Prior knowledge:
single chain, 219 residues, mainly alpha, 434 Repressor (Amino-terminal Domain), two-stranded antiparallel ribbon, 9 helices
Amino acid sequence: MEQRDWPTRLAHRIAGEVRRYRAMRGISAQQLSDLCSDVGMDIPRAVISNLENGRRTSVTVAEVLVLAAALDVPPLLLVFPVGYQELCEVLPNRQRDTWGGLLWAAGDRDTPGGSLPIRGDLENFENASSSLYRDFYETVEQVSSYMSRAFEDEARARKSQNEKVRKSLMDSSRLHRMMARDVHSELWETVQIMAERGIQVPQLHTYDAVFADLAKEYE
């Protein structure tokens, strides 16, 4: 297969997935076009029809994102038809399992099959910003989870009339707070690495209450 034809083959694959998900949603090309407008970008019905019928041989990143939002499907699933195609052409004349291709595109190296070395040596891959962002948010979620359990235990302890039950619940709460502190330390190690590498640190405004309460443990 010619390398120069790969963009066309990729566009046809995306078009097939657009058609698949449109059919699954039970909407017409015109309805999909209207949904795209609602998202914020006009994609005329004729463009969608030409894409699905193979008459249009290119698709932009902007169109993929808007079509995905209109179809309520993750954009990468339009590019990598997981569950519907075992193998796909991830790069020109490079076939691999579709799931592994999706993981590579998502920057997930931890899952088996997630890496796709294209230049031989990707030893710095784990230091990529996407990996650090994943670590950051996973750690934040862990802290939030432990603190939520601590709050729940404390609330149940206050309502309990049984002294042994109250003590057990408060012990559990302290344990969850201790686990939250440990993970919290890991979070700020990640933040420090991000800062040192000039990577923008995400805002924590949605977790302010959790971290404010956790901070009291350091006083």
